[in-house]
Amino acid sequence: MTKAEREKWKSYIRERVELNPATMCWEWQQACEKEFGGRRRRGYSVAKYTINGKRTKISGHRLSYLAFVGNITSDLFVCHTCDVPWCVNPHHLFLGTHQDNMDDMIRKGRKTVPVVPYENRRRGAKHYRAVLLEEDLPVIVERLLAGETQDAIAEDYGITKYMVSRIRRKKAWMHVPEVRDAKYAAGHSIRLTQKKADAIRRLHDSGYSHSKLAAAFDVSLATIYDVLAKRTWSSAC
Ligand SMILES: [Zn+2]
Hints:
Elements: H1 3-16, E1 17-20, E2 25-28, E3 33-36, E4 39-42, E5 46-51, E6 54-59, H2 60-69, E7 77-80, E8 93-96, H3 98-107, H4 136-145, H5 150-157, H6 161-168, H7 177-181, H8 194-205, H9 210-217, H10 221-228
Antiparallel strand pairs: 1-2, 3-4, 5-6, 7-8
Helix pairs in contact: 1-2, 5-6, 9-10
This protein binds zinc ion.
Zinc ion is lined by residues 23, 25, 82, 84, 87, 89, 92.
């Protein structure tokens, strides 16, 4: 970052923060609040910039470190002494390795490892990074049961497909009864039907590749292989 660029980013940052007099945190006012499933949530601050004609995103605290402090060796993380994800006060930022970041998180009880007793852990919507609220879960489960794609649900709530899959596989939000008690169609992907499975086999016979089929039916390659090998949906045409 050149000196001129630094000055530009410094004023960019100053325009977007508000000083919290109690904590001295520079609280990022804009992009850190995002619409997720109709609700506003705070997370890491994000700045957008253009580099070589390409729009790129950078976290506000990383940008702040670059502008106010100096370069970041690529394998280092910018960590917070104040533990506020949306704070970009350069005095609250320090460089650390992945290990430092982990040690720091554990020391502050921010990481859910056994140092935090299970009953004290921040679960669900209390987790500072949570995008979902408890009341969203019954709706998500209902949509999964109705056979909606995980992609569509993820998109609507601003969460990753991986998170939807974790809910479906009962790896997350298990303290919500609807998630815990949901009875999904067992064994095979709920995205397929017998009709679709038969179509996959026909299309494969007429020369469609596995990857094309996976994309067309919005399922994993493994699912396609399972269908073709008749490990799933075998009561075929
Ligand atoms: Zn701070």
